[in-house]
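Input/output pair, single chain:
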Amino acid sequence: MAELNYKPDGEVLRTYIRDLSYFSGLQGPVGSGKSVGSCIKIMMLASQQTADTEGVRRTRWAVIRNTNPQLKTTTIKTWLEWFPEDKWGKFNWSPPYTHHIKVGDIDAEIIFLALDRPDDVKKLLSLELTGAWVNEAREIPKSIIDAITMRLGRFPPMIGGGPSWYGMFCDTNPPPEDHWWPIMSGSAPMPEWMGHEEAMTLKRPDDWTFYTQPAGMVEEKDAEGLVVSYDLNPDAENAMYHVEGYYPKMIQGKTKSWIDVYVMNRMGTLVEGKPVYNQFSRDTHVAKEPINVLQTDVYVGIDFGLTPAAVFAQRQMGRWHVLREIVAVDMGMVRFSGLLHEQMADLNEAAASPLNYKVYGDPAGDQRAQTDETTPFEILRRNKIKAYPTGTNDVALRIESVNSSLVRMVEGRAGLLVDPSCKVLVAGFEGGYHYRRLQVTGERFTESPEKNRFSHVHDAFQYLMLGGGEGRALTMGGKAQEPVNGRGQYNVFKRKPVAQARGGVMQRKR
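Output:
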């Protein structure tokens, strides 16, 4: 008879394995035993299933990963290391990959699925399951999690006694802060832009539990709070299964953002291509505490579309202070205008006086839609927000308008400082906003930044910087020029007045 000898090394890991909640989730660093613990949990629950009239403990499980290559090379590989075919029965390598284990009175059918194709999702929706394990849940959308819940508790059928336990468990490395996992676990706040109905889908049910393991290492910081070295964390879990020097050798040559996610077990975004802003440093450009709002002009940049975004900033003695961000999904400009008003009111309250707002956006936002012939700028003005298009939409100039402030030093301080509340903007700076790597030989990337959830807020910030005069400083030389006057626009290349439509009258800067 096959034997299984396993001892979880760590209290969090042990608690997760024994948890019988309908949903249990485990977040941890690389090497913390998450996947192995989940494999063991399947067999533990299978052995605890009440035997039927024939004396057999029958269960059926789905093991889910986001792509087929990852399913085969990581998830299945880990499974077979603990449940090898020569002891636990033949593994069926024909899709859907299945391991039917019959040991003693246990009859457990484990089906491995990748959800990177529509056909795979259809297979999931036809299964009758006892439970499911989702491996690396940060790669799985909430819609798939919801679909899985419809298939649980359906095997063995009630006519045969039903399942003694049914439910789902997941493991993951830290996801981004706007992922469903940190929102439901309470590690990240509910986005302010999210509507009531959508927010209710991310409210954690009573029988859902989330666990977070200790980091693999601890940081050593200097007097200014900068990380100077890493030491092994004495509380790290699964360490008894590590080779000597596992974490110290792993972090060599890695970026801080990589170490934060994979070793320090912190939520974050990893670089998937070539970062647009190589000069950005969290230690230099992100404030340690919230930035005070000054009694001076507030510049606002807006990116339009169904994923609108806005950034608010102030300028003081050549330095930019980025105060707030608004990042929305599937929202029209009318509703987004309301969010802008709310944010302006909050800034006014923080400054203890009404502030003057200079709002800029994509010049394409002045083009009329074919549906109602209304432009985003007109919608904003109808909602009492005076917004104006920047003089150009040139991507290179927009990016350089930000770069110029990143490399600027003013009296020994960074020319750009971002409030820590601007999490999406910062994550974009750290690599979320990037050039996509091309699938060719060598290091080649796209010419324009990848359009993703980070690009919208960065587009908005670029329009802010152009409106604030950074773009003209690049083309004219010298310091940042006076901000663009809303009464007229200048073409920064020709330096001649360009007409701006306002009631059909040609306007020129005076």
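Residues 270 and 473 are 32 Å apart (CA to CA). The two ends are 91 Å apart (CA to CA).
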